[in-house]
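Lecture 7 notes: from sequence to structure.

We start with a single chain of 132 residues. Read the sequence below before looking at the structure.
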Amino acid sequence: MGHSFEAILTGRTFSIFSDKMGKKVAENFVKIIDDGTIPGRRGTLNFDDEGNPTSKTIMVNNGILTSYLHDRISAGYYKVDPTGNGRRQDFRNIPIPRMRCTYMENGPHNKEEIIASVKNGIYVDSFQQRAG
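Now the structure, written as tokens:
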């Protein structure tokens, strides 16, 4: 769900969530967060590439879409504050809303219940960044 919440996509209706602000998009126990303040994590920054402080942005709370990820331009379009997600690929490009450290909080189900409920799938218990 992360990239689909980047406001550059939602404002142009490229995202399936473009018309879902304030609406139910997941089960009631779902909370999805994009956080640029977690020490030592990939995507952690003090400020985005526009000089906005990074923050913890709750995108989905209790299954309701509550925020997109914004840079200054998209924040102006939506009439909200920037979320500190304005990132640029390099000096040649303008900042656009990009994910930082995006995650979903634990829900009420344990691992065994989740695995038992899936007919076909892949279980991954960790992701690691390779050196070099």
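The chain is about 15% helix and 15% strand. Keep this in mind for problem set 3.
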